[in-house]
Amino acid sequence: MKDLGSFDYVIAGAGTAGCLLANRLSADPTKRVLVLEAGGTDSWIWFHIPVGYLFAIGNPRADWMFETAEEPGLGGRRLAYPRGKVIGGCSAINAMIYMRGQAADYDGWRELGLAGWGWDDVLPHFLRHEDHASASGSHHRRGGEWRVERPRLRWEVLDAVREAGAALGIAPVDDFNGGDNAGCGYFHVNQRGGRRVSAAGAFLKPALGRPNLRLETGVEIDRILFDDRRAAGLVFRRGNEQWTARADGEVILATGAVGTPKLLQLSGVGEAARLKRLGIEPVHDLPGVGANLQDHLQIRPIFKVRGVRTLNTDYANLLRRAAMGLEYALFRTGPLTMAPSQLGMFARSSDAHARPNLQFHFQPLSLDAWGTGLHRFGAFTASVCNLRPTSRGRIDLAGADPSAPPRIAPGYLSTEEDRRTAVDSLRLARKIAAQAPLARYRPEEFRPGAELDSDEQLLAAAAELGTTIFHPVGTAAMGGDDDPGAVLDERLRVRGLDGLRVVDASAMPRIPSGNTSSPTLMIAEKGAAMIIEDRR
User: Fold this and answer.
1) What tens digit of pLDDT does each residue of 499-533 get?
2) What predicted TM-score, i.e. pTM, was given to this entire model?
3) Residue 94 dihedral angles phi and psi, to the nearest 5°
4) 403-416 residue pLDDT tens
5) Which parts of 385-516 fold into alpha helices (H)?
6) Distance in Å from the first CA to the final CA of the chain
7) C-beta separation of 222 from 235 below 8 A
8) Which end of the chain has fewer CB atoms at under 10 Å, N or C?
9) How many Cα neighbours within 13 Å face the side chain of 452?
10) Which residues are the active-site residues?
């Protein structure tokens, strides 16, 4: 076994959180920082052109190509489960939507006994790295690394969807990020002048010139190295060679909601009985590792439209397709700057909810699944997800081989509340499509189909159409001293062990009410500050 040497901080993962951690921790020139990343560099052009997600998701060059187990709530289907295989992680292939969630989400974390995680506590950490092109008021600022801009393209059909929402009392809004995201508006996006901004571009690359920061890509981490109950480093492989890197300060796991529980379990940290069955000697019995998996299940109703431009019809026309590329090359505008979803709508599925529990992602396009071709007819998609699902799943090792993918079982639609919300969300999508502002385009329900009307039929349709919206969280969750499932304390330290911290989306005790990329960066920002404080 070869020795890479000793560092103050050894970070597992150069994904969304790991990139920010690398930047913040290496800002002190007296601290040596190592980042280990299994993916590669982001030299491929489609990591930078916004519409490149169409080519990255489902491509082994950019995606780990994970798959779920058979999901009982989805009729036994297995789902593709995309995760970024590159520096920047999922921020290099995601929807680029800048979304914090709702203030009540974080106040709820604080009520779980997690001091310092309420909305007023976390807002400064969102702001520290923000560079908002339209900054105004106390909820936005300029000057940080994480660029936020308004979209560079509008669609007539989506403007009409916004008017349809208003007709139902869902008010137009300009900004979803003030703590209350109720309403309908165009998403703000992580782009700079029509190019994607990933965590690698924003945080990691600007810091790589520092002599105290080292990045190793294309390496697979086998396990955490322990000295008794203290994390002392990481064991990893490059090709057929095994290496160690020791940490004089802390080992920090930032491999995400899929990778972090896998690495903990490989290292003997998890439910002891389960690990023993796999032939792994337990180091620390911590049953919450891999449990509490939460994700936003998106259901994707599709409505055909006529007499209005959509990306389907533009892409089907070879001249228009060529014009898209020319417009982007000359002006950095047009459809190639599109995020996967342009218009957002936050609404309540019923009066039983005091705040929005549904998020619509409206798209001027339709397809059978991400990674497949666009339909050749005009259409928009009214993708809708339950923001606060009560269903819980698990991520566990499938075996003791570090190279084997984990077993991912999200548990979608496993509670009556989630099944009820799924049916209600499809009915609300139909109400939106039936409003007068859309009538001139003669919307026709293509999926699930207007002939399906009973609750039983719509639930079956939700199970058929439902898929991940790529927001897994919670698999190494923070929790109070009285929480038997807690993996971390409120300072992101692994309970019962020393020198080991988790700083990524797996730390979230409950999923935020919106997209999860920027909340993950907030956790990294707050986590970096706590690591620095605790070292002094």
Assistant:
1) 999 999 999 999 999 999 999 999 999 999 999 99
2) 0.97
3) -85, -165
4) 999 999 999 999 99
5) 416-433, 455-465
6) 33
7) yes
8) C
9) 19
10) 471
